[in-house]
Amino acid sequence: MELFSVKMRSSREEEHISGAETIVDRAELVEVVGSFVKRALNHTKGEPDFINVKIEKLKEKPLELVALPVYDLMIPIDEETLRKLFGLMGFPDERGIELYREILRGAAPGGKVMRGAMLVKLPFGERVEPDRERGVRVSTVGIVKEAEERLKKLAGDRYTENLRDALVLATKVLNHPAVLGELCVSDDPDYTTGYITVRGLGYVRLRRMKEKGLRKGGRVFFLKEDCNVEELINYLEKKPVIIKEVSSYSSVVDVRELLSSPMR
Ligand code: COA
Ligand code: AMP
User: Fold this and answer.
1) How far apart are CA 134 and CA 172, in angstroms?
2) Is the confidence at residue 261, as pLDDT, over 70?
């Protein structure tokens, strides 16, 4: 089977508006390109004056992964809950909260939003990404139609395209053995749901991570002390990964339910 990576990015006056990508069979190319262009033209951040669609044939077979289990934490997030989740991850909670605040202020120099993720390493959580404006961008990912349909069914009216894309990306990230977890707040002013992933637990959706209307956001990947950063970046950017299956979607009303999860 011939597989292709399809990537879309859109901008206005050089400012990034949206991006999307997937991996598909040759026969699906035309349909996917159409849907990406539609997506670019209908973004809440505004109308683009530039849309770039890139199609590349994959040179290697993608790694096939099962999506992380999703836990939808139905309570608005507060720092106390976040601290507990950092504890589960094995990351110092004080530093975790500092990084969360940094995301909300804009973690690039001058308080700007980064173009990719921060990398922070144990034991102290120092930033180790090579470029603090660009960060590191995960790419070359996709999800098969059956898995996407299953996610829609499991999540019901809580399904969003953001959830699907973020779950795909986060599953690739946490699959790397040197990653402990991830924190994400969208920079979309209308999308206030974020997430944290925790090794051995899964993907926890977090409500009201920021004030509606705030055009700030960002991602942090939490790394073990012995992580080879160069090798990790190469994996995150280049290794083709496709989600073949979705595992579960559970609603959680109290963070204590996560602390006693059977996965742990
Ligand atoms: N924010 C700001 N600028 C961005 C950007 C982002 N998220 N993504 C791309 N750009 C701009 C930058 O100027 C970038 O140059 P840089 O590498 O110096 O930062 C330029 O576009 C080219 O980016 P590149 O990644 O080489 O383009 P691409 O066409 O290969 O892939 C994406 C673009 C957006 C598809 C890819 O980077 C990506 O983010 N994939 C994941 C998409 C996804 O699922 N996102 C949803 C997560 S919830
Ligand atoms: P989004 O969920 O698309 O609003 O993205 C939230 C933040 O994550 C952005 O502000 C970037 O800092 C970062 N980001 C965007 N795309 C990627 C990516 N592909 N990989 C890693 N980080 C990203």
Assistant:
1) 20
2) no
The CA distance from 29 to 179, in Å, is 33
Which of 161, 219, 222 is the pocket-test mutation for ligand 2 (most atoms within 8 Å of CB)?
219
> 198, 202, 182, 90: which is closest to 136 by C-alpha?
182
CA of 131 to the centre of ligand 1 (A): 15
Q: Mention every residue, 6+ apart, whose C-beta is less than 8 A from residue 90.
A: 122, 180
Which residue in the block uniquely carries the two structure tokens 């508006």? 17
64: CA distance to ligand 2 center in Å?
Answer: 22
The 10s digit of each residue's pLDDT in 143-152 is 999 999 999 9
pLDDT in tens, 101-110: 999 999 999 9
pLDDT at 248 over 60: yes
What separation, in Å, do the N-terminal and C-terminal C-alpha atoms of the chain show?
A: 38
What residues contact residue 146 under an 8 Å CB cut-off, 6+ apart?
none
